[in-house]
From TrEMBL:
Domain Endoribonuclease L-PSP/chorismate mutase-like: 8-151
Protein origin, superkingdom: Bacteria
Species of the source: Nocardioides luteus
Taxonomic lineage of the native organism: Bacteria, Bacillati, Actinomycetota, Actinomycetes, Propionibacteriales
InterPro entries, A to Z: Endoribo_LPSP/chorism_mut-like, RutC-like_sf
Protein name: LysR family transcriptional regulator
């Protein structure tokens, strides 16, 4: 299998710099053979990809893209903690929060933005348990927030 960053490059993507925390926490913590990320927002080049609620101001497609960016930011946090994404043995769990309108029920499809990227990058090791949760609001009015747990 290709190294994770090589696969990302083939997809036209790369691991960004770690997004600085917006409050009193750190981006990732290693405990034993696992790394837990803090919730990552869809920040790219210092700004949110979109703001608002999925099903309202933000389309499901834009939410999917936001979830993918959140996953890239989570991988950046993991990389900063362990040095090399090739050390990831398995993506264990993805938790995706989707700020959405009350009538929007497509949270799983939005979360696929993160899940499908991880599957492409890590193959079978990228298959994971997941929760996709609709919430009324997220920090900075972000439409999506993603956390990862990976085994190293």
């Amino acid at each position: 299998m290709s190294a994770p960053e090589e696969v990302l490059a083939e997809l036209g993507l790369s691991v960004p710099d770690v997004v600085p925390p917006v409050a009193a926490y750190i981006p990732a913590v290693r405990s034993g053979n696992h790394v837990f990320t803090s919730g990552q927002l869809p920040m790219k080049d210092g700004a949110l990809l979109s703001v608002g609620k999925v099903g309202g101001d933000v389309s499901a497609e834009d939410g999917y893209d936001a979830a993918q960016q959140c996953a890239l930011n989570a991988l950046a946090a993991v990389k900063a903690e362990i040095g090399d994404l090739a050390q990831i043995k398995r993506v264990v769990k993805v938790l995706c929060f989707v700020a959405s309108t009350p009538d929007f029920t497509g949270q799983p499809g939005v979360a696929n933005g993160a899940s499908e990227l991880l599957g492409k990058v890590f193959g079978d090791a990228g298959r994971h348990a997941r929760s996709a949760v609709g919430v009324p609001v997220l920090p900075l009015d972000a439409p999506v927030e993603v956390e990862l747990v990976v085994e190293i």
